[in-house]
Design goal:
By secondary structure, the chain is α+β, with helices and mostly antiparallel strands. Helix content is 29%, strand content 25%.
Length: 987
Amino acid sequence: MIGHRKRLSSGLSVTSKVFVRSRNGGAQKIVREHYLRNDIPCYSKSCNSCHDIVKPDSNGELPAFILSESPKKTKSGLSHYIVLDTNIILHAIDLLENAECFYDVIVPQTVLEEVKNRSFPIYQRLRGLVKSEDKRFIVFHNEYNEATYINRNKNETINDRNDRAIRKVASWYAAHLKANSSQNINIILICNDADNRQKARSEGIDARSLVEYFDDLPNGEDLKDLIPSNIHNSAEFHGENETTFPEYYSSARIMAGVKNGTLYQGMLNISTYNFLQGTVQVPAFKKPLLIIGSKNLNRAFNSDSVIVELLPKDKWREPSTSIVEESNIGANDNAEEDEEEDDTGAKGVVSDKERILLAQEALKATSAKEADQKRLQPTAKIVGIMRRSWRYYVGQIAPSSVSEENTGNASKSCFVILMDKVLPKIRIRTRKAKEYLGQRIVVVVDSWPSNSRYPNGHFVRALGEVESAEAETEALLLEHDVEYRPFAKNVLDCLPEEGDKWTVPDVENTEDPQLKKRVDLRHKLVCSIDPPNCVDIDDALHAKPLPNGNYEVGVHIADVTHFVKPNTALDQEGASRGTSVYLVDKRIDMLPMLLGTNLCSLKPYVDRFSFSVIWELDENANIVKVDYMKSIIRSREAFSYERAQLRIDDKSQTDELTESMRILLKLSKKLKQQRLDAGALNLASPEVKVHMDSETSDPNEVEIKQLLETNSLVEEFMLLANISVARKIYDSYPQTAMLRRHAPPPATNFEQLNDMLSVRKPGLSISLESSRALADSLDRCVDPNDKYFNTLLRIMSTRCMMAAEYFSSGSYGYPEFRHYGLAVDIYTHFTSPIRRYCDIVAHRQLAGAIGYENLDLSHRDKNKMETIVKNINRRHRNAQFAGRASIEYYVGQVMRNNEAEHEGYVIKCFNNGIVVLVPKFGIEGLIKLEMLGDANTAVFNEDKYELSFTDLKGRQRTVAVFDKVTVDVKSIKDEVSGKRKAQLLLH
């Protein structure tokens, strides 16, 4: 490529890039013009010249000058701006976001583009920093600035050219500010490439590594703890002196292996009870591939996308029957040294008990040929990582890894035990290990070299004392990647200017053609039925008899899309968050509170915009016709489930509103029966509710949620609305309709549960020919001596099911649209747009389908829809896990003061412990063999799913799956992870 530059009459200049492409023996000359400007400002408030050259944009607004006229100073008194290179951003983005030193930062356009090409998630975080008003980050478009653009030299690599372009930005800024500012502001280029630093210094640029920069800051020593380990000299991390793990295959070998079927790609799932065992589901095998041992797991984290290679059949295994926890095996490891790994795959100092268990597992492997063939699973080893799942992790420093030497200014290694027990501990370096003991801290993984037994990471920040409500809540939000920061100003700017004074405009006298399309339904007897104290009311209903004997039934949903327009900052924030997250003590909103709890909420006695679905239903709840419309409603009342139930049951209440709710209840029962007849599943999960003290906000009671008929009433009509809307938007947008599917479970998912039933409950089994067969078989699985057994089996069946997922209709054939659990051929989410982004997309598509407004291109593009559904699936799953974690934490707090005996059920048996579900608290706890009795007397019968042992009182005991047991329940703090958990003792 060669280039030359010429000036245009407009004052701009253009550079021509000439490429010569050779194809099929011929040469083709390609010329591309690249326009350069002389009016791109430096964005410094102290500059005397740039304010005069800038021009307003298409909206008539001038760019903001945000670089401070009095920036921060170094220890030597140097006022300065910072120019960053690409690698600093890629490896230290969390440092840039959180450290109290990165202000007045210049990001060259060259760097921005490199970051975008190498890591789009980091690029998005960088754009977030640029939008943040308090951080003062700016993007300088050096590639379009006549003074800073450079051509690529002959024989120069693109990386060398980009390094030179970044140096050019630094030198231009230094000269520009010296000539045009009365303030003495210096430019510091932060770059960790030693060669690039040396070249910069030879050009008169103040170039420093991150460590060198921190050395010259007032709080620099503290900041050094935040430097990622892969920016530090790797030699500082002790213990990396032996090859512990196999090297990953090359990209070429992986691509060839996947293509010819010798390698497979899938997501790794680490066992909850054995951190040395994982599974990878691949289409080529009915059963998941087992990955056993640290060498075969090969530095992979839970949820990593991995490449695996099948092991020979003589190494195929049964899944482990042992509980193996890293906290017990590696409890005494030295963070400064890596210890030899024994031949069982154990790391560090291993207790005799754990060593015996691991040896038993190894013995089982050698006798696999003699094992029951139906239990054998193909085994594999991980040979590559396609995509890391690394994120912010929360944990606490392991006290055993902190010595007296971890004081003073010397940075020492220590281990961080993560809250998620399926993940390995992380080695970090810090000067403040003792100060952080007993605190929840946030860390990031930087690397996991093949010659390091543990991953290396760095400290990000401290959240607070372990077990404090604030620290634990923030920890679980970070652990589940929930965005909880306040909404940015540009998002809030999208809200109506009137704020909470906004009212529905007068549609009769409006000139707005869209408002004229709205149907006035304020005369309808509409009401809402929700949980107690609900403020984000997104659905309401009405019903009335028709002269022909049928019924008119309406579902009215908050018209969120009236306020959330496509491609605005508000829309982008909602799309990114994906869903609201409900915790025991708070709600993390998807949209600003003004919308969710005020303007969009279908509160009673006020006019509100809604999107209505109105059916004519016959006496048997069959649909005669259905209409869709944007509307205006005025809810007559906001009921809680309990209050609505009491009103329906009170025969003295004969007003029209009550009678309409009785119609809704009657029809909802028929709708439910239709679903059950079609094969809809009635599964279960141990749902509990935590009651908080109204004065102290402390948790004081746990109860199992009680469902009323009014719960089912609302659910049935929401399901009917979702199904009707799904059909409508699919008819109009067959390639991009926003839908939700639930795949049927593979038969292998139920193999073990059916085997348990055949052994423990002869005559009972679960059928999988269809959802109807599954539902009927679950109904038959009853134990006349135990009323809870059927519920227990439904809970265990739920865990064997596939997860429901959002999808774009063009991604699957129509038969695969089916929602297995609901037994319907097509389904979507439409009824909760305040708290789910899927529903917002469905609203926009329905508005397009009925001709109310044109559908935005982003919801008609298959690729963009794929991006949306991928994100909301992840956000939805994370929100569920965060909600459960919140309940688990508060249940643990309640149990601190409520130690007592409770009924429990054995749901898993291992050779060194059992897992018991306690319905009262909706929790399950692990009881290890040493807590049950004498480990030397224990006999595990794998075929019968039972464990026999001599208990602590000298009695011979046998416990098995499905057994009802009495357990002493108390809450204890795990000293290793700092997590409070239920401790169960067999009574």
